[in-house]
Fold this sequence. Notes:
Chain A is mainly beta. Chain A has strands at 4-7, 10-13, 19-25, 32-38, 45-51, 57-58, 67-73, 76-81, 90-97, 105-107, 111-115.
Amino acid sequence: GAVVSQHPSRVICKSGTSVKIECRSLDFQATTMFWYRQFPKQSLMLMATSNEGSKATYEQGVEKDKFLINHASLTLSTLTVTSAHPEDSSFYICSARVGQGGETQYFGPGTRLLVL
Amino acid sequence: GQNIDQPTEMTATEGAIVQINCTYQTSGFNGLFWYQQHAGEAPTFLSYNVLDGLEEKGRFSSFLSRSKGYSYLLLKELQMKDSASYLCAVNAGGGNKLTFGTGTQLKVEL
């Protein structure tokens, strides 16, 4: 299947700082990427849909000013958690849809964020 | 809104067969996915159903009935490495967005 990478895999930061997470599609172009958050023993919750060259679409209840998404190219989307707080500690996972009409989403390996 | 239900936990024996059910009520339907997720890792794609019927892929099979809003994942010849969480996800509501169930934690025992 298609390969999606994320960086960093783990990050620990102090409360109030910002953290940037990168999501890359390695062997295909992704016009659409998705960002999810997963708390322990819970399922994935979609945060936003990242569209190349345009603004991201956020799900209800997700603060767009806190979770900044930039889809700079067809292979890169970034999620910046601004002014992180301990409650933002979670597993953040991106996925990419293969091709314009592709239904399958391939997931990155995830980024575990711990805010102290 | 979207609602997807799965059992929280299941236990099965190595070598046996297990069926994990998923029911959904969604506004629109563009396909149902099954993913496997080991603890601390990202989900890996297992199967995709958009038409009614059974899709078989090695030890894994997935069934869909759109009229009943029902799917199941069938795992045969269970191995210890199959112990994981199995996520049912529905593509509904446009934009190719996936809505995930809470996942079924499968434990395979000797």
